[in-house]
Specification:
Elements: E1 3-8, H1 16-30, E2 35-39, H2 43-47, E3 51-54, H3 90-100, E4 105-110, H4 112-123, E5 128-132, H5 148-169, E6 172-177, H6 184-192, E7 197-199, H7 207-219, E8 225-230, H8 236-239, H9 243-251, H10 258-270, E9 274-277, H11 290-308, E10 314-319, E11 322-327, H12 328-331, H13 343-350
Parallel strand pairs: 1-2, 1-4, 4-5, 5-10, 6-8, 6-9, 7-8
Antiparallel strand pairs: 2-3, 10-11
Helix pairs in contact: 1-11, 5-6, 7-10
């Protein structure tokens, strides 16, 4: 009889519960006597032995439920080797909890930092299977992460709703989209929402090119312009700075986010009214879309198969519409960025979308 524990770490997103359900249903179908435990509050729960024994009924009715029934917390990878406030060795504590629970496998669902910590636990000798969770879609080794498409739908709806008010008032609207250091979410939502300008971290922008794109629309008789701006968007000037120089500059930054900086610069150059909308954490919330429910179920079932075959040390990835095991050591520490020369960027530009890099 196997003993398996689930752990959800980092920011929450849609389809975390759907993925755990996929793992659990497959395991229970293969072995009704299997024991499944839930680690509460992410890695923190593993450190401080905060867990519960679960039963099949716990996984009923959660396919459509957002968030995570186990709770989550952020435990930055860079701090994992640092003792806690009481001097406790956090890594050793997690290993000891795993052994105390007599686990055969720890199933970890999370984003980039979570995957790094999962690989660290693998290196410590724990049997680990991980799953790619993030609305950012930036995990190396997987074409798609669960939560991404649901967040795209929400961000797209935000842009859709801006169109009518932007037209009514003849304004420039900036919609700031999540995504951390990458632009996948902004790119897809921007195209789907009909944004006129899309600014991504991977393509540093020239504010004069952004202004030129808006002015071309004005000259063509368009009453409004909509910009989809990634929270990590960066100007060409800032992209040329060293980390130290950038850190010093941010200390004196008067703007709450990059969108407000861009908005102020556009207003100064054009005299047009600028309005900024930040959907924020709404992009993480609510019920997972149908697409996410499908890939979550598939990823979960595949993860369970790895556990049943005792193939540990893998993240379950999604490549070319197929589920594939990816060695955790290949995933940890890598980001999947938008390629500025990719076909999707070229196709978006052919539609007339500006990425702020060309005047």
């Amino acid at each position: 009889m196997k003993r398996v524990a689930f752990l959800t770490s980092g920011g929450d997103c849609q389809a975390l519960n759907a993925t755990m359900r996929g793992v659990a249903k497959t395991l229970y179908n293969a072995d009704p006597d299997i024991e499944i435990y839930g680690i509460l509050e992410g890695y923190k729960g593993l450190m401080y032995e905060n867990y519960i024994k679960m039963k099949p009924s716990d996984f009923s009715g959660i396919l459509t439920e957002g968030g995570t029934i186990l709770g989550s917390s952020r435990q930055p990878f860079k701090n994992m080797r640092k003792p806690d406030a009481n001097g406790m060795d956090k890594v050793l504590a997690m290993v000891n909890t795993y052994k105390k629970m007599k686990l055969d496998c720890l199933v970890i669902l999370g984003g980039n930092g979570t995957q790094k910590s999962a690989n660290m636990l693998r290196e410590e000798g724990l049997n680990v299977v991980s799953l790619p969770k993030t609305i950012d879609n930036d995990i190396w080794g997987s074409d798609m992460t669960f939560g991404f498409q649901s967040a795209v739908d929400i961000a797209t709806t935000a842009i859709d709703c801006i169109h009518t008010t932007a037209y009514s008032h003849g304004r420039v609207f900036i919609v700031e989209v999540m995504g951390h250091k990458v632009g996948w979410l902004t790119l897809h939502a921007g195209i789907a929402g009909g944004a006129d300008v899309i600014l991504l971290p991977e393509i540093p922008y020239d504010i004069d090119a952004v202004v030129a794109a808006i002015q071309r629309r004005t000259e063509a008789g368009k009453r409004f312009s909509i910009l989809a701006v990634a929270e990590g968007a960066i100007s060409k000037e800032d992209a040329a700075l060293t980390k130290k120089e950038m850190k010093a500059k941010l200390k004196n930054n008067p703007y709450p986010s990059v969108s407000y900086k861009i908005g102020a610069e556009i207003e100064e150059r054009t005299g047009q009214e600028i309005r900024i909308t930040v959907p924020g954490h709404t992009q993480r919330g609510g019920s997972p879309c149908a697409y996410d429910r499908v890939i979550a179920s598939r990823l979960g079932a595949a993860a369970a198969q790895l556990i049943l075959k005792e193939k540990y040390g893998y993240m379950v990835g999604f490549k070319n519409d197929e589920i594939v095991p990816v060695p955790l050591e290949e995933v940890a520490g890598k980001l999947k960025m938008v390629d500025p020369d990719s076909s999707i960027i070229k196709e978006a530009k052919s539609l007339g979308i500006s990425f702020g890099d060309e005047r």
